[in-house]
Amino acid sequence: MLPHMETHIQHQYNDFHEVYTEKFTHNELSNTLFHEAFNFNVKGKKILDVGCGDGVDLAIFEQQGAKVFGIDPSSEFIAKAQTNNPTGIFKKGVGEALPCEDAKFDIVISKWAMQTSTDVPAVLREMARVIKKNGTLIYLTKHPFLQFLEKVRDNGHGVDYYQQQIVTSNIYSGSIVLKEPTHTMGEYLNGDFFSNFELLDYYEGAEFPASEQLNGDTYPTFFMVKARRK
């Protein structure tokens, strides 16, 4: 992640961490799908959440006997996550340079966080580095199709899908305004990804009004990947 972008994201989430925590429960579909992907026992497993936010997902896994770890660029969210998971280990950091040793975790997760990076392939390489062989990766993130529509909304027609730009996202009926870099699907599912992982499941869905419904159209606002480390 570029230094200025890391600082921007840290301050962005610090500024509205309380509202974000309150509104995040509105993501009912994505939350349900995310937790349904855990159709296996996590007791005794080491789970890392990249972009852990307030740690509410990890708290569920901790109650099921998992050993939980979290990374987030926001100091405010790290403090909340530690409160929600007293026995967990939480560090301030970014996905492009995880402060973790190689092959440490049985499971690595990320939800609504990877799209904040300017270098998604680097995040995926780091995730591959810290997952044990045959370990599980589950991530859910903003769909590039939504970001492309936001790019058109911000800049008008004639924009380039493949060129990364910062766009505005109005979420939770406009109560939170985000500035995030755009991505292509190929950044998430590239050659490196398939060299490191076996794809187990893929799902894309629409969740309004958690995401803004541009022009009243229906389109995917997020997608989720479940994979196994080779």
Q: Percent of residues in beta strands?
A: 25-35%
Biggest sheet overview:
7 strands, mixed
Assigned CATH superfamily: Vaccinia Virus protein VP39
**CATH architecture assignment:** 3-Layer(aba) Sandwich
Overall average pLDDT: 90
Structural class estimated from helices and strands: alpha/beta
Determine the CATH topology: Rossmann fold
Measured between the Cα atoms of the first and last residue, the distance is: 26 Å
Overall body shape: globular
Treating each run of at least 4 consecutive H or I residues as one helix, how many helices?
9
**Biggest sheet, strands in spatial order?**
3-2-1-4-5-9-8
Task: Tell me the number of structural domains.
Answer: 1
Kindly list the characteristics that best describe this protein.
230 residues; alpha/beta; disordered N terminus
Condensed summary:
With 230 residues, the chain is α/β, with parallel strands linked by helices. 35% of the residues lie in helices and 27% in strands.
